[in-house]
Design goal:
Blueprint lengths: L10 E8 L13 E8 L10 E5 L19 H11 L6 E5 L12 E2 L3 E2 H17 L7 E6 L1 H12 L6 E5 L5 H4 L4 H9 L5 H10 L5 H16 L22 H8 L3 H4 L3 H8 L3 E7 L6 H14 L5 E5 L10 H13 L1
Parallel strand pairs: 3-4, 3-7, 7-8, 8-9, 9-10
Antiparallel strand pairs: 1-2, 2-4, 5-6
Length: about 350
């Protein structure tokens, strides 16, 4: 619902983009994706910065533009922030990046599809050519949880494309946020005869989806993202022994290659992050997925490398923290408007 229905309202535009990078993914997911684009009131988008919303696991950019009870959806938040003068005008893209495994981490995966390529090679040209926004030095991205991971990993890898990023409670320090879930995954698989394929096909059949099973699905999605197996069902293989839950070093090392904390001391990553116009990182002090400790480690490493960034902790957990965008969105728009 609109908190103030008299605020000037931006316009929403839906476009569909067919991506060669998403074709032939192992899940059989569609390569054509909808992207909803917010354009501020009184503008056609021309010359404005472009922000891209990367949502968390089980989400879609489309869900962020839907009606929301007891608060604002994201377009309403943007309307309020821009109308009040707290935020400089910006175009915001909301891509649908949902998959049969519940989402993705916005990197290229043989199993889930080449999501980095989709964002950079397919979505950006389509949005920028239609609305005249963004361009070199005027592109940023933001997200929470898996979306926060996507924001920080793109900032680390693709500073040639992105000039600012905001990471809210993003996945990092993988040994703290992923390994503790492995016993839960093995217990769930044991109920299916140890079969990942049976777990996934039974899960998809429904008709009801238990929260614990969704959490297991998330770990399987991470496996298909960081270390896909082209011979396995939907590309999923685990980094632990399925009987003893012992870590398999060769498999776990493939995951760790994508851990932002492990990447932060790479000279190329440091150079990329130093080139950004703005970098925002925050996390709740009681985050139930242990992400606070990874955020603290990353903050410490960025400071030691002389990388300019804003780091904040706030008294909350991992859930329902969209209000943090009241700070990060104005930060990004200001950084990209200069």
């Amino acid at each position: 619902m609109l908190r103030n229905p008299d605020l000037p309202q931006g316009s929403l535009h839906s476009i569909k983009i067919t991506s060669a990078g998403l074709a032939d993914n192992m899940l059989g997911d569609p390569a054509t994706r909808e992207v909803v684009v917010y354009v501020p009131h009184g503008s056609d988008g021309s010359g404005l910065p472009l922000l891209v919303d990367l949502v968390g696991y089980t989400g879609s950019g489309l869900s962020h533009v839907n009606w929301k009870s007891f608060g604002e959806n994201l377009p309403q938040r943007l309307d309020r922030l821009i109308a009040s003068g707290e935020m400089k005008p910006a175009v915001v893209a909301f891509p649908d990046c949902f998959t049969r495994l519940g989402g993705n981490q916005y990197i290229n995966s043989r199993a889930l599809g080449n999501w980095e390529d989709f964002l950079v090679a397919d979505m950006l040209p389509a949005v920028e050519s239609r609305f005249g926004c963004g361009g070199a030095g005027k592109r940023g991205l933001f997200g929470k949880s898996s979306g926060g991971y996507g924001a920080i990993i793109h900032a680390m890898r693709r500073a040639d494309i992105w000039s600012a990023a905001a990471c809210h409670s993003g996945d990092m320090a993988f040994e703290l946020c992923y390994l503790p879930d492995m016993p839960l995954v093995l217990r769930a698989l044991s109920k299916k005869g140890g079969s990942i394929e049976k777990f996934l096909t039974d899960f998809e059949a429904g008709p009801k989806w238990d929260g614990k099973d969704i959490h297991v699905l998330m770990v399987l999605a991470m496996a298909a993202t960081y270390d896909p197996d082209p011979e396995a069902f939907w590309g999923v293989r685990l980094p632990v022994d399925t009987e003893t839950c012992e870590v398999i070093p060769a498999r776990w090392d493939e995951w760790l290659k994508w851990d932002p904390v492990r990447l932060a001391d790479d000279p190329a990553v440091i150079a990329n992050l130093k080139s950004l116009k703005g970098l925002w990182i925050d996390c709740g002090t009681v985050d139930q997925y242990n992400l606070l400790y990874g955020a603290r480690r990353l903050n410490k490493m960025l400071s030691a490398s002389g990388i300019a960034h804003t780091y904040e902790e706030f008294p909350d957990d991992h859930s329902s923290i969209d209000y943090r965008m009241n700070k990060s969105l104005p930060f990004l728009a200001a950084a990209l408007s200069g």
